[in-house]
Amino acid sequence: MGLQQDTVTWFLGVLFLSTLFLCSAEVHHYEFFVRESNFTKLCNTTTLLVVNDSYPGPEIRVRRGDTVFVNVHNQGNYGFTIHWHGVKQPRNPWFDGPEFITQCPIQPGTNFTYEVILSDEIGTLWWHAHSDWTRGSVQGAFIILPAENETYPFPTPDADQTIILQSWYNGDYKQIIDQALATGIPPRQPDAYAINGNLGDTYGCTNDTIFRMQVDYEKMYLLRIINAAMNEQQFFAITNHTLTVVAQDASYVERFTSDYLLISPGQTMDVLVSANQNVGQYYMATRPFSDASAMPPDNITTGIFQYTNSDGGLNASLITLPARDDTNATNSFISRIRNTNVTQNPPLNVPTGIDRRVFITIATNTVPCNTSQCLLPNRFVASLNNVSFVFPRIDILQAYYNSSTGGVFTEDFPLNPPVFYDFTGNLTGFNTRAELGTRAVVLNYGEAVEIVLQATQLGGGGSHPIHLHGFSFYRVGSGSGNFNKETDPSTYNLVDPPLINTIHVPGKGWAALRFFANNPGVWFMHCHFERHSSWGMDTVFIVRNGTTTETSIRPPPSTMPRCPGT
């Protein structure tokens, strides 16, 4: 059933893309020079690895269906890779970017050119380093405008503005996680949050800058909001102004209005805002959300939504953001996001006859700490189905493509948790140990796949933003408590589920997603809380080739970075 439905999906997708490509797709070239630069914030100077000496890095701005070549020059002190978050890269996993998954790092003193192939993505995505915690400073927006002669499915805005929400640390991001992994304890919390690299006026350092967005009265603006924070979901609002959500993760959604947004790390949202209030200055503000036992700092970071020819009028008491632990506000906002039936979206085709079901439990765990730097007998790890992912030293894609998988990875990731228990109950005294391994799920081309992600109370509990590379998928359901495979599927939304690439799994709850395995390659799935991914809350989905050249992985480029020791 799934393969028959996939044939329909393929035909509709080809028809949709063919219509787009009747417009002339273009080829763009960018140069990224990645090196250490100094930045002074919180009255402290920090050296960061950044692109083209800027934080955040340069914006890529192209049109739907274009191809982008980015030549990345590593002029820094250690290797890294770059990922094009939310770009599906059809048949092109070689340029997806996650370190030791699809490539080895770009070493200092070398360069590597990525080929980024756009298909049906539209709106706002982003790019970031995908090595250790380097993405904390190596990051930027990836804006995909409508194709030539294509319109927005909403009133055309007068202008657009990218807003990147960030975590700021006084220190080198890679050194922070390296020290935490060596000692076995959690990495420290951020010192502040930032909006487009600005910390605002709430942290007490008079030299800190505040982001200002200049607007004209009665004009309409499209905000392109990216949560690039390391470990923090974020609420966002503009005082006295209503936000209209029009897209998430580069796919249009049914429009709805809200006084605030909830956006998880990795996610993007396109939002309309009208400058229709009294001429003046209004705070935009962001603060974290968490439902875990270990809360992030409850800092509010500010920017200014400033009308032309206005001054004064700022009033911090008017900032109305949900409380840091307001799960009702979070769940209410997410529940309103629905797909929209517009011609600018790919044809809606939710898998119904499922060929492969995967049920994954999410946890933080412990294992014995055996290094000389350990501060405690056990160290923190994280897991999916009790497997804590271990990154190999040769990338998995290369090993899979060359059929030399021995010692690199195995194809036996468990499709169900090894033990069923009360995942969301009181787990005091429950065994928290996890197994270490590099284990993948292998899918046949064209299979209809359902993944149910179950949050547990092992470790700190709480919600998780889970990102799948290589695909956009439908969020068909979510709920509280333990997933019930007999009754919960009856609550699925198969009519207008949002098409996304990063899914919010609620604390003490579950979320379900569906997609067709129609993109051959090796694709990473991981929590977008960086501490969890660093601890092993990751796995890999391998999609086998189909029966034709058009359904098979492209040959590797000759310029792939060499793996250490090869």
From TrEMBL:
Q: Which GO terms describe its molecular function?
A: copper ion binding; hydroquinone:oxygen oxidoreductase activity
Which source organism does the UniProt entry give?
Gossypium klotzschianum
The record ties this protein, via InterPro entries, to:
Cu-oxidase-like_N (IPR011707), Cu-oxidase_2nd (IPR001117), Cu-oxidase_C (IPR011706), Cu-oxidase_fam (IPR045087), Cu_oxidase_Cu_BS (IPR002355), Cupredoxin (IPR008972), CuRO_1_LCC (IPR034288), CuRO_2_LCC (IPR034285)
Q: Which Gene3D superfamilies match?
A: Cupredoxins - blue copper proteins
Q: What is the lineage of its organism?
A: Eukaryota, Viridiplantae, Streptophyta, Embryophyta, Tracheophyta
Q: Name one GO cellular component term.
A: apoplast
What the record notes about the co-factor is: Binds 4 Cu cations per monomer.
Which keywords accompany this UniProt record? Apoplast, Copper, Glycoprotein, Lignin degradation, Metal-binding, Oxidoreductase, Repeat, Secreted, Signal
Q: Residues of the signal sequence?
A: 1-25
Q: What's its job?
A: Lignin degradation and detoxification of lignin-derived products.
| Location in the cell | Secreted, Extracellular space, Apoplast
Catalyzed reactions per annotation: 4 hydroquinone + O2 = 4 benzosemiquinone + 2 H2O
Write down the top EC class of this protein. Answer: oxidoreductase
Family (UniProt): Belongs to the multicopper oxidase family.
Determine the domain of life of the protein's source. Answer: Eukaryota
Record-given protein name: Laccase
Domain (Plastocyanin-like) ranges = 34-147, 161-309, 413-545
This protein's cofactor list reads: Cu cation
GO biological-process terms attached to the record? lignin catabolic process
Q: Principal localization?
A: secreted
**Region entry Disordered, spans:** 547-566
**The EC number(s) this enzyme carries:** 1.10.3.2
